[in-house]
Amino acid sequence: MKNKRVDTLVSYLIITAGSIIMAAGIYFFKFPNNFSTGGVSAMSMILAAVAPVLTAAEYMMIINILLLVVGLLVFGKGFAFKTIYSSMLMSICTRLFEVVIPLEHALTNQKLLELVFAIGLTAVGSALIFNEKASSGGTDIVAMILKKYTNLNIGRALLYTDIILAVASFWVFDIETGMFSVLGLIMKAFVVDNVIDGINLSKCFTIITDKDQEICEFINRELHRGATVSVCSGAFTGENRKMIITVLNRGQAVQLKQFIKETDKHAFTVITNSSDILGKGFRTVV
């Protein structure tokens, strides 16, 4: 029970960090440059430009609240509290930034540099949130509703929406802003998945050795990981040797490589990267 509470606390701390990072990326880099790379932030910027009765941060908070209310009405108790928490925290932080640190212009005159930070920070933030089985709300809620009631290809529908918002920036703002928005949209398509993969990256070891007992003991006792051992034979020599398969994080991988080097210089080791490991000690199957 205690471990579950600790895990929940850590999960919410990660979501909190992700939401604040996203808010910083949106307020300090997207809003001042009008980078309309999709989602509620892009809608808010366009609305603030077309109907400047509210600021972009205020529009974003209102839209997110409305979407959360719709989500609660549609899904009831089944609507994820983590998504509500993340969406509201991100909106509140963006508004607080606006009140505490008002910006009249972009931080620098280097738009490409600011676009990199805008996409990078929001990608890192959303990756942290997604990794805790939550989302930042916004258009994700629309996707959840469409998925429940229609047979639409949700990913494609959201992509088309983002493209429309990016293209709209050509007319609402100017050609340069529109071009940067389209470029940002393309960057976003690749960066988020790569950041998530980087967070979950593990090292998969396949070790063929005669020192299987020593290596397995090191994996079990020093690294506190498991391993699978099987007998294999060389195609050329026909000699039987042991094959060890184990999966470790990056820090543990460095330790195991050094231990293998010291223990069995003739060991044949293949190390591959994977970000999709399911099982005890890694991701659970949901």
Describe this structure in words.
- The chain has helices at residues 2-33, 39-50, 56-75, 81-100, 111-131, 139-149, 154-172, 175-199, 212-222, 250-263; strands at 202-209, 228-233, 240-248, 268-274.
- The protein is elongated.
- The protein folds into two domains: 2-199, no CATH class; 202-274, Alpha-Beta Plaits, CATH 3.30.70.
- The chain has 286 residues and is an alpha+beta fold.
- It has a four-stranded antiparallel β-sheet.
Q: Keyphrases for this structure?
A:
286 residues, alpha+beta, Alpha-Beta Plaits, 4-stranded antiparallel sheet, 10 helices, 4 strands, elongated
Question: Could you provide a short overview of the structure?
Answer:
Helices cover 65% and strands 10% of the residues. It has helices at residues 2-33, 39-50, 56-75, 81-100, 111-131, 139-149, 154-172, 175-199, 212-222, 250-263; strands at 202-209, 228-233, 240-248, 268-274.
Indicate the low-confidence ranges by residue numbers: none
Count of DSSP helices? 10
Task: Tell me the number of strands.
Answer: 4
Strand content: 5-15%
Total of domains:
2
Q: Span from first to last CA?
A: 20 Å
- Give the topology string: H per helix, E per strand: HHHHHHHHEHEEHE
State the helicity in percent bands.
Answer: 55-70%
Task: Describe the global form.
Answer: elongated
Strand arrangement within the widest β-sheet reads 2-3-1-4
* Biggest beta sheet attributes: 4 strands, antiparallel
Classification by helices and strands: alpha+beta
